[in-house]
Specification:
Largest sheet: 6 strands, mixed
Distance between the termini: 54 Å
CATH architecture of the largest domain: 2-Layer Sandwich
CATH topology of the largest domain: Nucleotidyltransferase, domain 5
CATH class of the largest domain: Alpha Beta
Number of domains: 2
Structural class: alpha/beta
Shape: globular
Number of helices: 14
Radius of gyration: 23 Å
Strand content: 15-25%
Length: 340
């Protein structure tokens, strides 16, 4: 006769075996990725297949305005101020608290060009790690562009083979396209949302950015001069290879970042699958000479100049349509093993 095992012992052994099997099979983990941008901090909470880096389920998407770029533009010594750094830490803590409530287990944050330019930018990221407990790092512009490009490819799958990703943030613009040899070619330029707004204030309106935050209302003559300025800038700075690729009718231009996904669609009247050059031009006419209050946005000061910026590049490069996607560096983080 076989000896009987204690029922509790059997149950315990079964539970242990089941738990071990589940642990071995668990390839999905809930992560929170933070994109510490020039004008806002964004957070994506998602369930991620750690074997592939693919998002299985997006749990939540969060964003909060923190004007790092405006602060640095007005700095007399090239340092971020104590106030904006404290605001950034506080915002990250709030966003992380939401992620904790939603059972995120892993965290990662990145910041780009602005934090390379600020004298105390890298030191600030050390402080972020120490005070928030979020592993954080400053990435190069090429790394940032690559994160955005691969996030778009992941989102689209095999839908689009000929692709150019156009990312406009607060203080950096990036275009990324694949070369014939399989590598990526980047266009990286500081002429982005906040930078161009300040060009309009200083160069076109001849005002002091230390005392003038918004260029609005911008009159028709100022719009014309600003448009000519940014078209000439695009003509001179965008690599010929990218300009040549943009002339191909089968190329899809995907716009990512706050300017493409939020700013332009807001003044066009809402989100659509894409927006055209002519729609941007019509919106620019409509919003010319309008004060901040008409835009009804916490980013009102850059809404009109963002239209000029986008239209100038579209005209200079012959871009007829942009497909905006709600993607930022945080999306690209999930697929990059080295950040986790």
């Amino acid at each position: 006769m076989r000896p009987r095992l204690n029922a509790a012992l059997v149950a315990g052994l079964c539970l242990c075996l089941i738990s071990t099997a589940l642990a071995q099979d668990a390839t999905v983990v809930r992560r929170a990725a933070f994109d510490i941008g020039a004008a806002a901090i964004k957070c994506i909470i998602a369930d991620v297949d750690i074997s592939t880096g693919l998002i299985v389920k997006t749990v939540d998407t969060l964003s909060a305005k923190v004007d790092f770029a405006e602060d640095l533009a007005r700095s007399y010594d090239g340092n971020l101020s104590k106030d904006v750094m404290a605001e950034g830490i506080k915002t990250l803590e709030k966003l992380k608290a939401v992620a904790v409530e939603k059972n995120a287990l892993e965290y990662s944050a990145v910041g780009g060009r602005l934090f390379q330019e600020a004298q105390n930018g890298r030191a600030y990221f050390v402080r972020i790690r120490e005070e928030t407990g979020i592993p954080s790092r400053v990435v190069s512009e090429q790394q940032a562009a690559m994160l955005g490009y691969h996030a778009v490819r992941q989102e689209l799958g095999d839908q689009t083979r000929n692709l150019l990703v156009w990312d406009i943030g607060g203080n950096s613009m990036r275009m990324t396209v694949r070369k014939p040899d399989g590598g990526l070619l980047f266009y990286i330029d500081p002429m982005a949302s906040v930078a161009f707004k300040n060009v309009v204030i200083e160069t076109i309106q001849e005002k002091n950015i230390n005392t003038t935050v918004s260029p609005n209302p911008v009159n028709a003559d100022e719009v014309a001069h600003a448009l000519a300025y940014i078209k000439a800038h695009a003509d001179m700075t965008v690599p010929k290879y990218i300009a040549h690729r943009l002339s191909r009718p089968d190329l899809t231009v995907v716009g990512i970042g706050g300017v493409h996904y939020y700013s332009v669609p807001e003044v066009l009247g809402g989100h659509k699958a894409g927006y055209t050059r002519d729609e941007v031009a019509e919106a620019l006419k409509k919003w010319t000479n309008r004060p901040d209050k008409d835009f009804d946005s916490e980013y009102a000061e850059s809404r009109l100049t963002n239209l000029i910026l986008v239209l100038g590049y579209m005209d200079a490069l012959g871009i007829k349509e942009v497909r905006p996607l709600n993607i930022n560096q945080a999306d690209g983080l999930f697929a990059t093993r080295e950040f986790w």
